Amino acid sequence: MVDPNQGKIASVGCCAEIIHYQRLPDDRMKMITLGQQRFRVLEYVREKPYRVGLVEWVQDEAPSKDLQPIATDVEHLLRDVVRLSAKLTDQNIELPEDLPDLPVELSYWVAHNLHGVPHEQQSLLEMLDTAARLEREAEILTTTRNHLAARTVLKDTFNQKL
């Protein structure tokens, strides 16, 4: 990720497999990717025509506690957010049936699907503690759920008066 304000490149990134691409008329490309492995840039060895660097692979630290309770909370919050979003927009929005079961994979899935908040996604990508990542995702989802619940109440109240 590049910070557009400072022009600074993040030191942690993710290798990705290109699943699908589409060339646009102006020679840009739209790509759908699947993240594979996180890395930390140790140093850049070339800047042009594109950056090349030495990296090290990064992995989450071994958990010091049972992650299942917080993962279960995150999944419930996620389901609440999807349910409220569907109700608020009058659309059929559903979570995929193959939502990850393992806490680590669920934490990555949630982080990936937080659209519109790239700095938050980058922060989650850089976390090496799965419990901390899940706890932050629980905070984000709780705030989102509460916001959507309030908007849903307003919508329901307004529609009843009509």
Automatic annotation (TrEMBL):
<protein>
    <recommendedName>
        <fullName>Lon N-terminal domain-containing protein</fullName>
    </recommendedName>
</protein>
<feature type="domain" description="Lon N-terminal">
    <location>
        <begin position="1"/>
        <end position="145"/>
    </location>
</feature>
<dbReference type="InterPro" id="IPR046336">
    <property type="entry name" value="Lon_prtase_N_sf"/>
</dbReference>
<dbReference type="InterPro" id="IPR015947">
    <property type="entry name" value="PUA-like_sf"/>
</dbReference>
<dbReference type="Pfam" id="PF02190">
    <property type="entry name" value="LON_substr_bdg"/>
</dbReference>
<dbReference type="InterPro" id="IPR003111">
    <property type="entry name" value="Lon_prtase_N"/>
</dbReference>
